[in-house]
């Protein structure tokens, strides 16, 4: 064993490698992406890794490996689970042979997602076990325990880290390579009575699942990561309360005998919120804690032991009141007098992520005044820091998507249009001054929305924007639907040759796999033509005149047509010479700033300047400058 300073996602990946994982599949999505990337970096020779075209494909690949006795891991973010739900729900009934862990990273806040959905509900919905780590160290160990649980019960299991577990760093104790488990799959055994899902089999397996989950709930009550932590009696002085195992002596639930006149309170928490609670209780007070590491099946016996003798319990969790509802249910089921507080009772906010400060405030508000510990004077008197400046996200300087949006906006000026966006960097095209994203729902949905609007408003020019990676992930079926149902719409594919939003992962159009192997590039134009599009044009968006002309003539054609804007992401290509403003020609019209919103374009007094540290030399600003006042370094020098 040795220590490494690791991101939570890296810890999870190394835990999977230590568990002998044989196959890892997934689709990139923050905050989960680094798990698969780290496995790819550290994988043993016998471990296969792939970025699948979407989460559904990834789930099915991992299931197939588990059918063959392999240990498999599939990774995604919470909204990706919606895409993978179809195979998952049936897989819950079929089960697996090898261990299969479904890692779904939830995103409270949300920091970089469309929703704050809570994967613990999917665990209840699918009747699958769920592990909820509270730290990088626990995540490292828990993923290995999840594989063991999966194999013991022949079922997929969830691992549900949240953003701050995924992206926090900590010193983690990890195994040396010679301590890794070596798992050798024994292969797929044909058995249609097990692997072919039919209604009768589903009914029989449903009964078995319900019985299994009762056993799991009992097992989880003894699982070491579910625990009751009781405070020791303070030994004088004003030090922080000490928390001891659940056999501590004292009054009921470990409350010192002299405190029995006060309401007996406890706190229940899970995930990263448990870590915040432990931090907050250094100053907030001394109460018994219930840590829930497996929210489903819920460790009922352990929870009942915790509730015994308590009057009030505060539940601290992200995102939904899952623990709170379970404890409320148990109080009703067993006629316990404890009042369960949390999100449902508005003792805790019911949206957004928790922080150490918010948890501390919630606990202080919950505990009675006489039970509180004084906040250190230094902390109470600390100066309020100034508010950080508002820095809205924008497309990068030189991003080809800015040029693509501007070309379409220019071409369709004065016409009734709708611009349906999608999930990716290009969602930022909604920001002023571009204002080119009228709708954004989920990956691939722009195509369907454009079709729906077009059927209701036939006089509207309907555009759907989608990136190259998203095209392969979830847009192809939308194109098929549009052609089959004779829609009238224009598809704009923003091909920047990478999956830019999540960190430049490869995809089917890049010609490279996650394992570094070269493969055939899947040609987007050929796919579109194969589906039935007859009007497919490709143009460089950074050639503004050609791009505008292309959009104008393509949009006027009937039926489904497409423009592929192809220009590499500025993060994966060599920048051109930096642009400069010729001050003697600049008339301060600010058209470049007003119409493009490029962060490299700034004002110095009344004059427009270009920030050379940001400019990539894309030349878009120079192409729309009415006086020719913007040129690259060489051109500027030749004009002096």
What does this structure look like?
This protein is of the alpha/beta class and 640 residues long. It is 37% helix and 16% strand. It has 4 domains: 2-221, Thiamin diphosphate (ThDP)-binding fold, Pyr/PP domains (Rossmann fold, 3-Layer(aba) Sandwich); 227-374, Rossmann fold (3-Layer(aba) Sandwich); 400-566, Thiamin diphosphate (ThDP)-binding fold, Pyr/PP domains (Rossmann fold), CATH 3.40.50.970; 579-639, Alpha-Beta Plaits, CATH 3.30.70.20. The strands form 6 sheets. A 6-stranded parallel beta sheet has the order 3-2-4-5-7-6, with helices on both faces. The longest helix is centred in the first third of the chain and has 23 residues, at 199-221. Mean pLDDT is 89; it is low at 234-239, 245-261 and 369-381.
Radius of gyration: 28 Å
Read across the widest sheet, the strand sequence of neighbours is 3-2-4-5-7-6
Count structural domains.
Answer: 4
Total of DSSP H or I helical runs spanning 4+ residues: 22
**Largest sheet entry:** 6 strands, parallel
Mean pLDDT: 89
CATH homolog superfamily of the largest domain: Thiamin diphosphate (ThDP)-binding fold, Pyr/PP domains
